[in-house]
Amino acid sequence: MQKYQIFLASSINEFKDERNEIGDLIRKIQDILIDYEIKIKLFECEFFDNTIALGRKQGEYNEQIKKSQSFIMLVGSKLGQYTLEEYNIAINSQIPIYVLFKNTQYDQSVEDFKNQIDENVNCYNYTTIQEMKTVIAKIIQNLCKTEISIQIKENKIQIENKYIKL
User: Fold this and answer.
1) pLDDT of amino acid 160
2) Which ranges of the chain have pLDDT less than 70?
3) What pTM was computed for the model?
4) In the prediction, which pLDDT does 46 show?
5) Are 73 and 9 in contact (CB under 8 A)?
């Protein structure tokens, strides 16, 4: 079985709805991909064991980034220190990075980040959940491109001969 882990970084509070939508979408895709012996695991820190860590809890999240095959970062009105730390770990791990900027008012931390973003990072802007889900589908398409045919058409994903509505 081919396994892929995607790390999702963002402010938990600001992106609660987006994180839920991404999780739902990946679960629907996973339901089809399992028949093709492909497993996609979405790592979201809020579902990670929050029991006492031997070291710094953020250090455990950073280790999960290093184990991931893709890193997705949602950026909105501000950029927190932990999300930025996770981005830097992903840069150093040399995994594909996708930054999705929500079209909203943002503070200086986001402006500073935009000015220092690495040239190899894939950046997207989105306004609606639908636009965000389309980008997520494209990321999964890139992740699995050598394993299976995944196409994005209008508002649906086609995986071989099965469809999922975005």
Assistant:
1) 87
2) 45-57
3) 0.90
4) 61
5) yes
Residue of 13, 62, 71 whose CA lies nearest to 42: 71
Handedness of CA 138, 120, 81, 52 (dihedral sign): positive
End-to-end Cα spacing for the chain = 26
Order of strands, edge to edge, in the sheet holding 97-102? Answer: 38-43, 2-9, 70-75, 97-102, 122-126
In 3D space, the residue among 24, 34, 32 whose CA is nearest the CA of residue 161 turns out to be 32
pLDDT at 55: 54
**Alpha helices, DSSP H, located in 37-145:** 57-66, 81-93, 108-116, 129-144
Q: Coil, strand, or helix at residue 74?
A: strand
Question: Looking up tokens 């930025």, which residue turns up?
Answer: 84
Q: What is the dihedral of CA 134, 138, 143, 146, to 10 degrees?
A: 130
